[in-house]
Amino acid sequence: MLAKSPGRVNDYLDAIAGLAPLIAEHRQAFDRDHRLPDEVFNALADAGLFRLWLPRGLGGPELSPAEFMSVVEAASSLDGSIGWLVGNGAGMSRVGGYLQEPVARAFFSDPRTFIVSATGAVGLAKRVEGGYRITGRWPFGSGAHHASHFVALASTKDVDGNDEPPRFYYFGRSDVVVHDTWRVSGLRATGSCDFEVRDLFVPERHAHDFIGVRATQDGVVYRLPAVSVFAWTVGTVPLGIARGALNAFGDLANRKARQGQSLLMRDREIVQSNYGRADAMHRAGRALLIDAMSELVAALAEDGPRLIEARAVFRTACTHAAETALRIAEILAAEAGTSSIFETSPIERHLRDIVAATKHFAMTPNNYVVSGRVGLGLDPGTTRF
After folding, report:
1. Sorting pLDDT into bands at 50, 70 and 90, what band is 259?
2. Backbone dihedral angles phi then psi of residue 158, each to the nearest 5 degrees
3. Is there a domain that residue 384 lies in?
4. pTM to 2 decimals?
5. Rounded to 5 degrees, what angle do the CA atoms 179, 180, 182 make?
6. What's the CA gap between 28 and 18, in Å, rounded?
7. One domain for residues 121 and 101
8. Is there a domain that residue 357 lies in?
9. Contact criterion met (CB below 8 Å) for 209 and 307
């Protein structure tokens, strides 16, 4: 089982609950501005919600994967964009366990540090004396408007122009051009814009390997495969949004009757049945996700078939959780009827946020292919799982 420290988690859960009125007050601006208002972002940062995986050795809480999941779910149930940014921002605080300690301490000296990441190797870095010259434009930089730092994956060449493995490169906000491209249907307030650098020098100490990165801090989070740990930061969001949809539907069912009927929705057996079914689906999807992460952690000591299978099944669990969350929201929207199509309905917002979240590569249906190949005795067919 994944270890938990309820006291620490409860502090963050209480902070999220305490932020609910502020989020409700500013929610109209979420869709209008396609980003979080500064007041909301700063409140999240000041509550420590972007530092959940900062190593203890650097003064951070270093939550376990299960603790992290609980906090991200709670944030996501409140609002999908909030949960997405907490998952991404807090998830990237783990880089304190990959960077050299002096660099990590400098990065996280500001309590409002927020590192935006991109994992598509669409940039190009060329090795030069003391570091690299990097050029690229990366999409989906969630939280880009509030970033203190950016980290991007780039193809890499040595001084002679030969290919090297792709690496992660870190640069400050002042070095980056943010392109305001985020005009979307769901997760609108995440501000997941493109960001770009041109011929930027990045010192060697601000770069590290992508695959097989060597941790500079102890802790299970920093030993998890890079692709797996990144998937956890976003794969935990859809079920949290779905729980928010369940909560919103429960509130609606307790005060509304369907048009032309006198019974409250909650008193109709079909509503009770579908709500119970949706709740069971949520619990099952969540249990699979936790079980898959537990097995992945247990398999870390083995560099062989068990670890490969654990990694493949974990990615399948992320996809299954996302698909389950989407089905839950669809069931609830159908029961809510026409009220669920209005932008004033929290169910409408939860549904479109889940639809957007499930498009992320971490939750691609191709994950079933990978785990199917492994289960049938074939190689995974890819290194990114």
Report:
1. low
2. -80, -175
3. no
4. 0.95
5. 125
6. 19
7. no
8. yes
9. no
